[in-house]
Specification:
By secondary structure, this protein is mainly α. Helix content is 48%, strand content 11%. The radius of gyration is 13 Å and the shape is globular.
């Protein structure tokens, strides 16, 4: 589940700043336990692929060079 979601984010299939489905919904969609869905979300957050905003949800992180503070070459 984690690898599939990470691949979809990195390929651009899941667009930046769009909400990620809830952990409960992900668990149902992938046929896994809620604990597994939470672990996958935690790994995505650790890798910087998603960001969680308290009381709002989890969103796909904007990984463009401009948003990361990197200087263009």
């Amino acid at each position: 589940m984690y690898e599939h979601l990470a691949g979809r984010i990195e390929s651009g299939e899941l667009a930046p700043n769009r909400p990620l489905p809830s952990e409960r919904r992900l668990a149902v969609e992938y046929g896994v336990s809620l604990g597994t869905a939470r672990h996958a979300t935690r790994l995505l957050r650790y890798r910087g692929l998603v960001k969680t905003i308290r009381s709002k949800g989890t969103y796909i992180a904007d990984r463009s060079p401009a948003s990361s503070g990197a200087l263009p070459k």
